[in-house]
Amino acid sequence: MELRRLRVIIGICMVVVFFLGVSGCAYVGERVAKKGVKTFFSMAHEDLVKHILEIDCDMLAREAVGGTSGITMLVNAFIPDNRELNTLNSLLYAAYGMLVEYEDPEYAMFLYGKSVNYGLTAMKNNKKFREGLEKGVKIHKLVHHLGKEYKGALLFCSLGWGMKIMLDPDDMFELINMPDVIAMVDRSIELDETYIYGLGYAFKGAYYAFVPEFMGLGGGPESAKATFDKSKAISDGKVVLADTFRARYWATLMKDEEMFDRLLKKTVEMPHGVPRESTLLNELSRWKAKEYIRDKDEWF
To answer: Which residues contact residue 110 at a Cβ distance below 8 angstroms, ignoring those fewer than 6 apart?
Structure first.
């Protein structure tokens, strides 16, 4: 029933875009289309996010996230500066990148880049942030301008950007952007540390395990462990992305094969559909856990 409702919402979006796009007067059609799509999306975006987060099958997650991102990209043509839509797209493309990076890293890099672009576009709705970027001010010096309505854009943009960097750690040009990436996730955590079951801490823990202490960017095993623990405490063990990232980045760093096996086995075997309001994160974790298990010989 829930999936059917999601299809209806997306279907209406497509009909509105198509019908108004082919109306007789191009100028009037475009104006009405933009107004109609903006109004409709303002009413529907919360339902879209809710149902996407409730996807309860790892294979369906891949298909639904990929398909929905295509639809929202088309809708974005009518309301390119809409903060809510760009935030949703940033989430979708970050999640889609994580779902395909094992089999197609190059495509995943492209998707992560889209996530970053959409996230930054959402944040540019804030005048001070936008004007600062236009003047060449670094992102980490601007995030304090962003309030709670930007916590999603901050988190998803940092997630997409961080995963892009960790997928290609030899790209020194991207590595220098790490202070901006962490500033965004830190600001999101500052605004609401419990947002999406402590997802910000889960990503930050992976970052801390990824970045050596000697680089002076706050990394290292102790920082990673403490941050993963915060994420797990917030989620009360209901969302396992922190455990999946802990296995991949912290357990491999510490050469703790027993922990690696235990955490990933727990993730793969966990029941579907729990917790209902955020099952996508666990299905994403399940998908990543299977990939990490296949790659185990690379780290041990």
So the answer is: none
